[in-house]
């Protein structure tokens, strides 16, 4: 099943970034004033790393995402107690809906567990936590968000790699310049960053295409991510158990990790 995130949609006309000589190092900034100059410099770096014309055009069209910066500075829920965090994030609803979705797609989840060793519970807990099972995947331009975070001095090094990955995905037609995601440039049903799409993205429904806005691709990719981060079939995944480390690889916030483990166990029964 193809979506606009999968097909190489026509890119709106933009003024190409002109590469200059000698190359200038892209310098981070803390407000919008230097963003366009940064794009000029970063385009040279991106081209040197193999980004082609389609990706460079997508970068040229990127806009400074003020909502992304606001979201990045205001992640209050991760500071809550575990009980408060689960209440705010609707844990009981996620568990109830997760159980229904597990039963409705039992064959798919059985196949995923056989292939990757990951049972339905953790995948559905992540799916519910990240996007309400695909209902809220984000409305921020993915390239603009990734470029803004790569430019912003707070975590420039971390997001530079994800921006380059996003531009590679544009070059390959997996996403387009207009693809939308969450505020931090996360994509699809389980909110993959672009670098993780390149590393762990798999075709979960067997149609020959990778599309993280397809729930089956997203869930299979999430299972592949967890396996790559140490998940072993049959192992426990509560705090202190072996597979909990794989959940830690998914998100760095302790309350998030524990919430996923608790909800997953309730879904799995």
From TrEMBL:
Pfam families, per database record: SLT_2 (PF13406)
GO BP: peptidoglycan catabolic process
GO molecular function, one term: peptidoglycan lytic transglycosylase activity
Gene3D superfamilies in the cross-refs: 1.10.530.10, Bacterial muramidase
Cleaved signal peptide residues: 1-25
Residue intervals of the Transglycosylase SLT domain: 35-237
Keywords assigned by UniProt, alphabetized: Signal
Protein name: Murein transglycosylase
């Amino acid at each position: 099943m193809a979506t606009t995130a999968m097909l190489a949609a026509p890119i709106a006309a933009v003024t190409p970034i002109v590469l200059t000589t000698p190359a200038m190092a892209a310098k981070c900034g803390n407000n919008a004033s230097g963003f366009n100059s940064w794009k000029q410099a970063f385009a040279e770096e991106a081209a040197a790393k193999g980004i082609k014309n389609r990706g460079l055009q997508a970068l040229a069209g990127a806009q400074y995402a003020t909502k992304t910066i606001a979201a990045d500075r205001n992640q209050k829920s991760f500071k809550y107690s575990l009980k408060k965090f689960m209440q705010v994030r609707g844990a009981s609803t996620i568990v109830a809906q997760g159980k229904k979705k597990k039963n409705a797609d039992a064959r798919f989840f059985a196949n995923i567990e056989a292939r990757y060793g990951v049972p339905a519970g953790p995948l559905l807990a992540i799916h519910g936590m990240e996007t309400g099972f695909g209902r809220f995947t984000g409305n921020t331009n993915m390239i603009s968000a990734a470029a803004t975070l790569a430019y912003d001095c707070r975590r420039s090094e971390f997001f530079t790699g994800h921006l380059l990955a996003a531009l590679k995905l544009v070059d390959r037609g997996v996403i387009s310049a207009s693809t939308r995601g969450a505020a931090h440039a996360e994509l699809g049903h389980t909110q993959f960053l672009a670098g993780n799409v390149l590393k762990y993205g798999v075709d979960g429904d067997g149609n020959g295409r990778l599309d993280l806005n397809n729930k089956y691709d997203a869930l299979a990719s999430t299972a592949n991510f967890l396996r790559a981060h140490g998940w072993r079939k049959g192992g426990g995944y509560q705090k202190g158990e072996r597979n909990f480390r794989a959940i830690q690889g998914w998100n760095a916030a302790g309350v998030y990790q524990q919430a996923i483990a608790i909800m997953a166990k309730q879904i799995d029964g």
